[in-house]
Amino acid sequence: MAVKDWVNKCHFGDVRDVLRQMIADGVKVQTIVTSPPYWGLRSYLPADHPDKAREIGSEPTLREFLDTMVGVFDLCREVLADDGTMWVNMGDSYSSGGRTHARDPDNKNAPVGIGQRRPDTPHGLKPKDMVGQPWRMAFALQDAGWWLRQDIVWSKPNPMPESVTDRCTKSHEYIFLLSKSERYYFDQGAIRTPLSAETKALSFETMDFKARDRYKMPDGWDTGAGAHGLFHRDGREAGKPSHGSAAARKARASTASKSVPTDEINGMRGTGVGWGYADSEPKPRTTKKAGPNAMRGQGQNRAEGGGRSNREGRDMATVAMHANTANKRSVWTVATEAYPGSHYATFPRALIEPCILAGAPAGGIVLDIFMGSGTTAQVAEQLGRKWIGIDIDVRNKALQAERLHQPSLDLEAA
Q1: What is the torsional sign of CA 251, 254, 258, 260?
Q2: How far apart, in whole angstroms, are the C-alpha atoms of residue 149 and residue 368?
Q3: pLDDT tens sequence across 40-74
């Protein structure tokens, strides 16, 4: 099929077969946002389904499940752009020692899979042990060649109640950010968060620098090289002016000019954009224009034809944005959403919106290999991205149609 025949559709079948067909057709996506089935939790397919034996999550052992997931994501890597990212949501479970499901079928616990014997306790674990499948999967993917860039904690303010009495109620899951390459597309500006008034007052972009320069370090701290704020080895040391004060800058300049040769100072300077790139053989400064997240005070030139700049070479619009927003942090508090359809594992739309905004430009293609009810596709459409879905259960087609009945925005990257 042509690429256009893949886009904005869900393709039903075993995920491995569909991915191989995408590879054969030369399909490439910008980002992948998905939530795989958990191992040993439930079966989504009826007993007479033709792909029942291949259902992911029903493997006899945890090791086989992890091997299956590595194989699936190896195929994903083939359809992912070289600068693409993958966002994988997964929660954890507990070893149950071969017990059967205790709950009876009802509206929330449909009969599919109920009554089946849970897998035996995995080798190396004990009954009641946390399985640790999110991290086991993340490390397996890292070993398989993926860059494991971040663990994002999905904090649920309205978690599912639990009747346990010997541990806390579980109220979080993980989203792992992985990439195909060391450098990849990531639109940090699209997901920056507003600063609170308290944080803004302490921001280096907005605070009173003259007032800051009057601060001094607390008495008793070791400020020598390599001390890292420990108590002084030779007793108390009177507090000194802060690192950024005029007095401290004058003292450092005087000390450097007296004790360190000029060529040695040059060898210690950064050799890339920003500080911290001192090499044994320094390279010339890069001529690359600074991006919108360039560090303050480095003096990089603004892009030609850009807006007004301040004395440090940063575009004033960028300065204003950074003065009022902050990088998104790695704990995302998002309430779970009620879903009237007959699907168990629907993640909230607000949870994956940042993944899509940061992972794909307007008009880019988002892939969900376990599409289920179609949350990823719905959010992608609302944000003006294209999407491709894969699902093994054709019964989800009606749920997806209900979520995607409105026409999508058709945006292209500027």
Answers
A1: positive
A2: 19
A3: 766 666 677 777 777 888 888 889 999 999 999 99
